[in-house]
Design a protein that fits this description.
alpha/beta, 5-stranded mixed beta sheet, about 325 residues, 5 strands
């Protein structure tokens, strides 16, 4: 087991992470010199993380993830693609479990942001995170929050993929305010609608304005979906957080928007992030968007489609009982 820990550590998974986050509860250090137990442990590690079992069992082979599709990375120029492989591989494994156990059949998505916006507003007073999650899940597109990566791994904000013959969205930014994760969800949905993910995986390390045509399309899709237009709102003078929150609530009520999205729009266009974050706190003081995403998700899962260990692991990493 010492050899396996060393190899996993060089790959990016520390012994502490493997012991605390990957191995089953019954694992004990006394088993670490038992060949049969170590082989079984390698099986658990492979299954839970999505690693190729042969690469774990043969010390002369490099450790690799199982390939479920060809990943496409939208990343900073300074980021080495290899450094994102752990986040992508782990998120893909979680998404694979969810798509396999998701109960709702996939229904083709409308091709325009305006069509999706109108559909959501037929059943919701505004286009907020809850409304978008309901829309996605009703069309058979799971949305998962997963950020349980090793501390040293490079992080990503979102991922869109097609696995088990259905689209899936993974949100990995740990940000408690709903509006922030609402935008990322809309951005990843844009990648799916615009067919940027034909039969594989698209990883967004950091979502921001970009010259990349696919990122431009996904950002414009998200803006039109959430605001009703890509150029609808402009801001004049600088605002204090209390005033910004009040204006955002008023305009949001009038235009069927999430007020937090308006706050982010202000913060982005004015580069007033400190003001924006304080306004978000006023609008949503008890925010916990990651937990809300996964609480919504589990309503659509048939746990019996997964074996007991996969159930235990998935519940642990998405934080549900």
């Amino acid at each position: 087991m010492t050899t396996l820990y060393d190899r996993l550590s060089k790959f990016g998974f520390t012994k502490k992470f493997i012991r605390e986050q990957v191995l089953p509860d019954w694992w004990d250090s006394e088993l670490e010199n038992n060949y049969i137990a170590v082989t079984e442990a390698a099986g658990y590690i492979s299954k839970r993380l999505g690693l190729d079992i042969r690469s774990l069992l043969h010390p002369d082979l490099p450790i690799t993830f199982k390939q479920l599709g060809s990943p496409k990375f939208k990343k900073r120029k300074s980021t080495d693609k290899q450094s994102l492989l752990i986040a992508q591989g782990m998120a893909t494994r979680v998404a694979e479990m969810v798509t396999y156990s998701f109960k709702t059949e996939y229904v083709a998505l409308p091709q325009k942001a305006s069509e999706i916006r109108n559909q959501i507003l037929q059943e919701n007073r505004c286009l907020d995170l809850c409304g978008l999650l309901k829309f996605c899940c009703s069309h058979g597109v799971p949305v998962i929050h997963f950020s349980n990566f090793p501390p040293t791994a490079s992080k990503m904000e979102g991922m869109a993929a097609k696995l088990n013959n259905r689209p899936v969205i993974v949100i990995s930014l740990y940000q408690r305010y709903s509006a922030w994760l609402l935008f990322i969800t809309a951005h990843e949905l844009g990648h799916l609608v615009k067919e940027h993910v034909s039969n594989g995986i698209l990883v967004d390390e950091h979502i921001k304005p970009s010259k990349d045509i696919e990122e431009v399309e996904a950002n414009n899709f998200a803006t039109e979906l959430l605001l009703g237009s890509t150029t609808k709102y402009t801001w004049g003078k600088e605002l204090e957080p209390v005033k910004l929150a009040a204006i955002a609530k008023s305009v949001a009520e009038r235009d069927s928007l999430d007020p937090g999205v308006l706050v982010l729009n202000y913060a982005w266009t004015r580069n007033q992030w400190d003001v924006g974050m304080k306004a978000l706190e006023l609008i949503e003081p008890d925010a916990n968007a990651p937990a809300n995403i996964n609480r919504h998700l589990v309503q659509y899962l048939d746990w019996n489609r997964l074996d007991m260990d996969s159930q235990d692991y998935l519940k642990m990493v998405i934080g549900v009982e």
